[in-house]
Amino acid sequence: MKELEKLATGVGIVLQSVKDVVNELVGDGIILTDKVGASNIYWALPSEQKKAQERLLTSLREEEARLRDELESMSVKLDEARKSAGDATYKANLDKMLTLQQETEELDKSLAAFRSNDPRAIQQKRQEIDMAKHAAERWTDNIITARRWMSREQGAPLEEINRHFEIPPELDEE
């Protein structure tokens, strides 16, 4: 380590970073270390790295084989489940869905029949009728007021104003 630190300081590398990198390489298993007396010896053999890679490759292949077997087993179970559930379940669910759709349509029809007797709907219709009645009265008053003004200011007879603006004769003043 002392030799490596001397070489690093000669190139301009900080001592602490050399120690950190070496400790990280030891932790990753790329560099091996042994303590001999008071000093630590670090080394890396190409054969050790190759052995580590071979061990990793072997474990990955074993994992792949295990996963392939599990996938095959699950595929067989899935096929069996599909065959056993098969058409009977599908047809039963389809029949149930069609029955429920027919019930829904019948209930919608009966609900529509009851809407004409709904107190809220009747109340809303009454409010709409009152609003329309008030609007008609307001416009009738406006027409009568405008007709009076024209008759008074322009001196035109009411019959002529009614004929000119197509005001019906039943719209008499009260």
Automatic annotation (TrEMBL):
GO cellular component, as recorded: nucleus
Domain Leucine zipper with capping helix, first and last residues per copy: 121-172
Keywords from the UniProt entry: Coiled coil, Nucleus
TM annotation in the entry: none
InterPro entries xrefs: LZ3wCH (IPR040661), Mnd1 (IPR005647), Mnd1_HTH (IPR040453)
Residues annotated as domain Mnd1 HTH: 1-46
Coiled coil (residue ranges): 50-84
GO terms for MF: double-stranded DNA binding
Localization, UniProt: Nucleus
Domain of life of the source: Eukaryota
Pfam families: LZ3wCH (PF18517), Mnd1 (PF03962)
Principal subcellular localisation of the protein: nucleus
Keyword Coiled coil: yes
GO biological process, one term: reciprocal meiotic recombination
Function per UniProt: Required for proper homologous chromosome pairing and efficient cross-over and intragenic recombination during meiosis.
Family: Belongs to the MND1 family.
Name used for this protein in its record: Meiotic nuclear division protein 1 homolog
